[in-house]
Amino acid sequence: MSETTDKNKLSLEGIEQMPLERFAENAYLNYSMNVIRDRALPSVSDGMKPVQRRIIYAMAKLGIGPKAKHVKSARTVGEVLGKYHPHGDSACYEAMVLMAQPFSYRYPLVDGQGNWGDVEDPKSFAAMRYTESRLSIYSDILLQDLNTGCVDFIPNFDGTAEEPKALPARLPNILLNGTTGIAVGMATDIPPHNLTEVANAAVYLLENPEASVNDLMQFVQGPDYPCGAEIITPKSDLLKMYETGKGIVRQRAVYKVEKEGIVVSALPFQVSGGQVEKQIADLMAKKKLPMVSDLINASDHNNPCRLIIVPRSNRIDCDELMNHLFAVTDLESTYRVNLNILGLDGKPQVKNLKQILSEWLVFRQQTVTKRLSKRLDNVERRLHLLEGLLVVFLNLDEVIRIIREEENPKAKLIERFNLTEAQVEYILETKLRQLARLEEMKIKEEQEKLLAEKKKLESLLGSQARLKTFIKKEILADVKLYGDERRCPVVERSEAVAFSEDDLMPSTPVTVILSKMGWVRQASEYNADAEHMTYRAGDGFKDKASGRSNQQAVFITNLGRAYSVDIRELPSARGQGEPLSSKVNLQQGEFAEYVIIGQSNDYFLLASDKAYGFICKYEDILTRLKGGRALVSLDADAKLFAPIKLSDKSSDLLAVASRQGKLLIYKAEDLPVLPRGKGNKLISIAGAKLDMGIDGVAAVAVLPEGSSIIIHCGKRILNLSASEITERLSVRTKRGDTLPRGFQKVDCIEVVKAKTNSSEEDPAILEFSLE
């Protein structure tokens, strides 16, 4: 047993041992950090992911610059995979394609030739063996200072070559082109911005380090996508987004109304015309877009985006139609913003606008300082060598003799002319014919130029203020060379609201009919003759209401409850209908008394014979519950009058007749507007008389402005003109005027509206008595 244990101990010598839990944790952490740093997240320095940086650098090394001839893309991909990025070729090529698509990148880095996809299908690009590419002019922003010693180089994956740790970006490319990426446990979504705006903000921050994000937003209005659609995110939300590094950007298509119809000329970022066309066509096929008759995709080479939406008629409000389409299609799209970036310390962090520009300015100052220092070293080295050349020119014969005759000319030249080893090596490497052509004046002229340059470089490196001014001038020079106008205007727009289902349904005139036994149906005409329709045995007409087929009918019961039913769900009047109880859940002993139809902003008078009532808005009467809602609180023996629609709540009058022969007329405004309840007294009647049934309300009417009334008392009638009504105008708390003898038993009050030039329905008796 002991021998076996000793053998096991010997076999494990030199092998690291750790718990499986710790090993798995370390392995996953290493993998996560590798994905975050080397794959998914861009760096604040040059705004590029490693694969993008390697593609640009490989093309520069191959000499495929903006002025070079286009080269097969497969050549570039092979160079990148073989030397710098040992991953999949398709992923590498797709990254290259993205940098070449002008509809994906605000400032493309690759100039492609061939099929590189289009807005309709960005992934329809040809294989890399067919396409050709070279660097775009904008790539100079990233590569111009590459060979000036301003960036650090690191070994590639196998140590056979070197690659830059970061490209010397002359502008904050991290914000200009933006990027998206998904790492382990984090993601990034950086929108593109306008070069001129971002550069001006960087210059302002360079001069005012204490500036706030709000100060910077006087330059940076918001993202600037390559598509040209409107950005409708409120400025307060944009400010919050740039302050926190997270938020949402909302984009809306640009349109104008022309003779052909509504012409959409710009779509949101990464939204294709075919995609929108399919969405609208699906809505039309499902009859959810009845106001559109046709959709034409007239996009071509000259007009990359031209969608024509043809309204069904000229009466349709095009702005309201587009507002609906914005809400239900991709004509309005939302984009997440998450400014998660690798900082100069290599750590991922969500940064605000000021942090991003501040870190890039630090990086820029570092690269410029390195560039100037490297140039200063080169100038000093050249001056040193020129001093040696000047000695050679003045003593050319002696130098030639030493070189020809001495066994160790290098040491002899150092000793004879007091030269340095570097000077002597340069002299010995120089061809004799070049030495012969050297002229003292040329050497001194070059020395003067280099001395002036040295003085300028030392001045820049010795003063932080001068260095900042120098950087500012370089940024503004690049703005002048590469800057352009903003493509996506930032505008304030109201929120898009879709039409309701009722608005989208075909609207036709209908009449809803209620029978005495509670059966309901709809006739497809306005104010149908319901009294002469056929009914079931023992049944007959009770009430009706006219409206449109896309509205709701409200049934008010003997218990003062309200039930709403979609008119389109009611059976046709060709039959005898269906019981209301099949549509709603009526209570025990409950039956429908009246039916009303109105618009949401209509007002109705609700009153009972116990002299109580109130005004209610139609939208407050509606309910989605099959069990209905309590509307009017009624006493045990109280009866409800038919609801009466008001023409104008501010100018209408109420006429109330009591059973004791009193008539009271007052403004409708005196009665409260309530969503439900018992209401207030319509006329002053003693409570004891109401309880005993001696007195109460016999009839009630709503009088539009300028109307007259006819009071029906059995076979006798009493006419009151508009002027007489005005003379009788009182207040709600009064008992009213006593009607003449013989006219005190009021059956109903008929309202005769004043004649107008507008076309209206025929005058009708809008009020009903209980008999």
Automatic annotation (TrEMBL):
SUPFAM superfamilies: GyrA/ParC C-terminal domain-like, Type II DNA topoisomerase. The keyword RNA-binding does not apply. One of its GO terms (cellular component) is DNA topoisomerase type II (double strand cut, ATP-hydrolyzing) complex. It is an enzyme of class 5 (isomerase). InterPro entries: GyrA/parC_rep, Gyrase/topoIV_suA_C, Topo_IIA-like_dom_sf, Topo_IIA_A/C_ab, Topo_IIA_A_a_sf, Topo_IIA_dom_A, TopoIV_A_Gneg, Type_II_DNA_Topoisomerases. Belongs to the type II topoisomerase GyrA/ParC subunit family. ParC type 1 subfamily. This is DNA topoisomerase 4 subunit A. It comes from Succinatimonas hippei (strain DSM 22608 / JCM 16073 / KCTC 15190 / YIT 12066).
